[in-house]
């Protein structure tokens, strides 16, 4: 193997490594949504606790027939709040496209649920499962609940909850209906194109050098 051939071969391997890195980086681009598993018990509490404090509260209202997100526990009727005012992101982002609520104890089941992003006028999709013990809400495709968006979130029960035994688990997250499907940005695509052309040209020179 001549010195020129070894040099060409080394350059070929370098470009191939860069191209592989770029492809892997684009394919592994995260969704960048908030991820907050949390829980609550009793008649009121903090949205996001004990993981974090998202800046608003939850409370049993309407004779304990509904679970509502409210600006603070002082509210005695449903009222819109603002999402993630503290801009918590746990390195994943500050918005959400999914919310899941699961009953642990203290109430018979879930009858209905609604989340409305009042800032964007979007009503989320809802699906009740696990024998009415869980509801999953997801943002319409291409939308999200952004930090500081005004929103309302209410879950209606099939019967009154008992504050003495009521408990639940919840999760703010990302959903497959929107931001999990990422499209590579034009800049990475153009870089990949240049790398591909360089690989082709280098291969041709290698063949001629053999």
Please outline the major beta sheet. 7 strands, antiparallel
Count of strand segments: 12
How large is the count of helical segments? 2
Percentage beta strand:
25-35%
* Count of all domains: 2
* Uncertain stretches of 5 or more adjacent residues: 12-30, 177-192
Task: Describe the overall structure.
The chain is an alpha+beta fold. The protein folds into two domains: 3-29 and 183-209; 36-173, no CATH class. 23% of the residues lie in helices and 30% in strands. The chain has two helices and twelve strands. The chain has helices at 3-27, 186-209; strands at 36-41, 44-46, 57-61, 66-70, 81-82, 98-105, 110-117, 122-123, 125-129, 134-138, 150-157, 167-173. Strands 2, 3, 4, 5, 7, 8 and 11 form a seven-stranded antiparallel β-sheet that branches. Strands 1-12-6-10-9 form a five-stranded antiparallel β-sheet, with no helix packed on it. A hairpin with a 4-residue loop joins strand 7 and strand 8 (122-123). Helix 1 (3-27) runs antiparallel to helix 2 (186-209). The longest helix is centred in the first third of the chain and has 25 residues, at 3-27. Residues 12-30 and 177-192 have low confidence and may be disordered.
